[in-house]
Amino acid sequence: MKVVVFDDGGLIGAETALWVRDHGHEVDLISAPGGLDSLTREKIAESLRNCSVVIDLSRQPSLNTGIATDDHGLVMDEEGLVASWRRSTSALLQAETAAGVDHHVSLSVVGVDRVRSEGAFRALQAHETMIQRSGISYSIVRSTQMFESAEDIATAGTEDWIVWVPPVEVRPVALTDVAILLAHTAVSRPLIGVREIAGPEKFRLDAFVRAALTAVHAEHRHVFTDVRSPFFGARLRPTDLLPGADAFIAQTSYRAWCTSRPGRESTERRGSAEHPDGAYRPRHGSSDDGCPRE
């Protein structure tokens, strides 16, 4: 079976493609850092020849959905983003129909069904609706925030070197765990519905971002909460980003992910660690690897 993965040039596409190949299937990875709009219809049609399954990872809330500014954080053209995602989603689904693709798998975000229709979530809501109405058998995997996305979240909320985030709860997850679920979903019977994936621990968003900036990236931007702070253009309620009761709970903890990252020895020598409960502690007497405790 041939599986085609479309991504925006990030890590998730390559990781997902590797896990699909591990299932014993042929896989092609098509990267479009400029968005699927940057691919010609001919390029898309050629890539879908003899394709049975498409995995679309190209539309995620990230710094690519707006312009990161020093004074106002992430500035987003909401109307432009919605129009662009509608256009590219429509072109891809039409190409899949013409090619006889059997199964469309899309990565979305936990909470898209609860968050107000604004910012990147408005575009995600439109994207999911188009998939559900396409007539193609589909599976939508909604993920919580990935460990690897913490720096982008911080940059999106940075104003004058202060990171402002809403006081919401999150259950971040390892990118590899998401890639494994995407690959398994792609080679299985279509869900004709949605499945959520989340990590094993619950943190406040400010504590998660603060931990990543200090323990992983060795940065010391101050992180504060403000209920008025948007999250990729959307205003959130405290539990909007938490998964439902039937979500798949991955097993990789933040501490395990952090300690397994390349270059952790250099992280240990930086001398301090931030814990995801929000309390700053000196390096001596804290975690033995410079990463947050569970």
TrEMBL record:
InterPro entries: NAD(P)-bd_dom_sf. It comes from the Bacteria. Residues 262-294 have a biased composition (Basic and acidic residues). Residues 259-294 are annotated as: Disordered. This is SDR family oxidoreductase.
